[in-house]
């Protein structure tokens, strides 16, 4: 008996130790200084504890429980506090509260439900929406601080099951994060797991995931999107409810068929006056694309964009009849309205769901679910697709560069959904051509007539300048050519040719003291109007692959009239660089009548590149910066 006693005591001590240790660990999550040291390097915030539990109780009953504790180290980490919840007519916030702790873990503020600000969850450009948000915007008096957020939200829709993306920003470390789905609905749940390996993710069970002690990701130049290499779990039911309307979602064909049948059918009826208008407009025109072009212009001239987030989950478009009468709509309503107009003149088209953004983001072709933030229209044309942006009243017909280009989208057809890719603009299609005639004077100043013509993606970067005030245009060009000091803009003429999609900017300008004087010499850079000045950051040990999202081509030709009584004493020799990332060349030539001709071509190619290639890519850019600074030395004859 005596021999057994120590073992019992040891067992009791063991249990007591771990009970206390476990409690201690829980309390420690509120104390900033007790965060794991290996996680505190180069971070703005640390997620100390994040638990998201999703209960799917029926096709129209889902409850999301959230508890999140975050230690914030500086103002850049404030955004990771995430003290907010969205709700609408189809979701209700049952619980929401927050607590703030100082660096020692002492509670300094308790935020109750009534303390949260309640606002519309959409911008001022939205006519109506039932989407709202409760949030608490904490203003810290010192750093670090720790904030705890707890919520419970009940949803009547199961079309939008929250994804798990524990790493939602750079310089954010994860001490502990957990995600669990309890599917009690009897409906099959499908998951897509991405980047689970090599990210400290533990698969506890089929629908249960956990991360412990994952260091923050440092941002690196040309990094791909975070979602492409950080953990992500996408869930979806094979049968779902969206605001009272049930749907089937085993694949994209099913989902697209549901969108067509439940969201679009019956919304495309037009007033007879609109039908008569477009039939008269296109009378005698056999070419369907030309008819589409005229109808698109008709739509643009008679409508304006206003966000209208009503209908089934904000996904159902306004009636085409209402858009026609009111003269406004959101992306869904205007796209559906344009589709109806085209049908009236026998031009087939497809309502299309897309992620619209300057950054390229795809609809996931391998995983069907409620995806996309924007609607556009697809007009098929002999095996090719023309995509129309219906929310922009000045957009050229068929132009998608910069917002919906080069990405997977969902065509909604009567027979079901189909994933296709929007137009990819190659380098020659995204051209910026700059020409200049320059007259230099003996003091180092010059006058110049400059034209800049852009197409494709580069057109999208320049489009809109023509709509600025004269004062803002002057400011724009001074910033655009900030390498030229003492610049004066004398005249601006901009022509936007939407038929061939070319923006032409003609600018007359002058500058004093551009060339530096050294005795009888003038020294200047012949590349006055299109210089690359930035070199991508250097990394001794780059961690991430890198991505160039779009190709483009710059073509420059400047004719420079030298001042009287000056001649060229020295100038940089021509250079030609060829790499896998693109090419660069420039050349200086002496012409008759004391003139110089400067020509330059720079092509950058889109692509995903391994991190081992980054050093060579940086060297390519470094060489461009160097040669764009090439000099010409003039001497008085």
TrEMBL record:
Database matches in Gene3D superfamilies:
2.60.120.1130, 2.60.40.3140, 3.10.620.30
Q: Which positions fall inside the DUF3857 domain?
A: 62-202
In terms of InterPro entries, this protein maps to: DUF3857, Papain-like_cys_pep_sf
Q: What is the recorded name of this protein?
A: Uncharacterized protein DUF3857
The UniProt entry, under Pfam families, shows:
DUF3857 (PF12969)
Per its UniProt entry, which superkingdom is the organism in? Bacteria
């Amino acid at each position: 008996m005596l021999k057994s006693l120590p073992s019992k005591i040891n067992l009791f001590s063991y249990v007591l130790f771990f009970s206390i240790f476990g409690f201690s660990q829980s309390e420690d999550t509120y104390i900033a200084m007790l965060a794991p040291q290996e996680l505190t390097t180069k971070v703005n915030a640390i997620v100390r504890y994040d638990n998201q539990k999703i209960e799917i109780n029926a096709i129209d009953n889902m409850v999301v429980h959230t508890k999140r504790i975050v230690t914030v180290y500086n103002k850049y980490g404030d955004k990771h506090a995430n003290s907010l919840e969205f709700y609408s007519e189809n979701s209700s916030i049952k619980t929401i509260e927050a607590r703030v702790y100082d660096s020692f873990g002492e509670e300094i503020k308790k935020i109750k439900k009534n303390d949260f600000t309640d606002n519309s969850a959409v911008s001022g450009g939205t006519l109506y929406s039932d989407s709202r948000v409760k949030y608490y915007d904490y203003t810290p008096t010192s750093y670090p601080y720790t904030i705890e957020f707890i919520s419970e939200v009940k949803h009547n829709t199961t079309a939008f099951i929250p994804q798990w993306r524990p790493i939602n920003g750079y310089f954010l470390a994860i001490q502990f994060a957990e995600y669990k789905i309890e599917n009690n609905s009897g409906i099959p749940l499908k998951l897509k797991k991405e980047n689970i390996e090599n990210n400290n993710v533990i698969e506890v069970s089929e629908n249960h995931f956990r991360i412990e002690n994952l260091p923050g990701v440092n941002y690196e130049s040309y990094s791909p999107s975070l979602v492409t290499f950080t953990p992500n779990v996408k869930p979806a039911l094979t049968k779902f409810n969206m605001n009272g309307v049930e749907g089937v979602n085993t694949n994209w064909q099913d989902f697209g068929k549901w969108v067509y049948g439940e969201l679009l059918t019956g919304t495309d009826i037009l007033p007879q006056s609109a039908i008569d208008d477009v039939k008269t407009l296109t009378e005698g025109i056999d070419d369907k694309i030309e008819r589409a072009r005229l109808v698109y212009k008709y739509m643009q001239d008679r409508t304006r964009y206003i966000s209208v987030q009503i209908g089934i989950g904000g996904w159902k478009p306004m009636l085409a009849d209402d858009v026609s009468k009111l003269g406004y709509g959101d992306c869904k309503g205007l796209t559906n309205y344009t589709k109806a107009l085209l049908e009236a003149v026998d031009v087939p088209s497809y309502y299309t769901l897309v992620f619209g953004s300057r950054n390229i983001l795809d609809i996931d072709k391998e995983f069907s679910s409620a995806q996309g933030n924007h609607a556009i229209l697809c007009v098929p044309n002999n095996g090719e697709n023309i995509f129309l942006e219906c929310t922009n009243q000045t957009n050229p017909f068929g132009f998608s560069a910069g917002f919906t280009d080069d990405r997977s989208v969902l065509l909604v057809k009567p027979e079901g959904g189909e994933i296709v890719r929007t137009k990819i603009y190659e380098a020659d299609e995204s051209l910026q051509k700059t020409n200049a005639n320059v007259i230099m004077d003996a003091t180092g100043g010059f006058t110049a007539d400059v034209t800049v013509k852009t197409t494709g993606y580069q057109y999208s970067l320049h489009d809109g300048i023509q709509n600025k005030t004269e004062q803002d245009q002057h400011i724009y060009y001074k910033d655009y050519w900030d390498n030229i000091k003492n610049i004066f803009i004398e005249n601006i003429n901009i022509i936007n040719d939407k038929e061939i999609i070319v923006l032409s900017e003609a600018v007359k300008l002058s500058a004093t003291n551009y060339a530096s004087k050294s005795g009888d010499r003038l020294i200047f850079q012949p590349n006055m109007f299109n210089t690359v000045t930035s070199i991508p950051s250097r990394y001794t040990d780059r961690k991430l692959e890198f991505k160039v999202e779009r190709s483009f081509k710059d073509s420059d030709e400047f004719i420079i009239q030298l001042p009287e009584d000056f001649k060229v004493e020295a100038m940089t020799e021509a250079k030609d660089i060829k790499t896998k990332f693109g090419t660069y060349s420039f050349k200086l030539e002496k012409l008759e009548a004391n003139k110089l001709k400067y020509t330059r071509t720079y092509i950058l190619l889109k692509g995903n590149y391994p991190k081992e290639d980054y050093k060579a890519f940086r060297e390519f850019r470094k060489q461009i910066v160097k040669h764009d600074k090439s000099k010409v030395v003039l001497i008085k004859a």
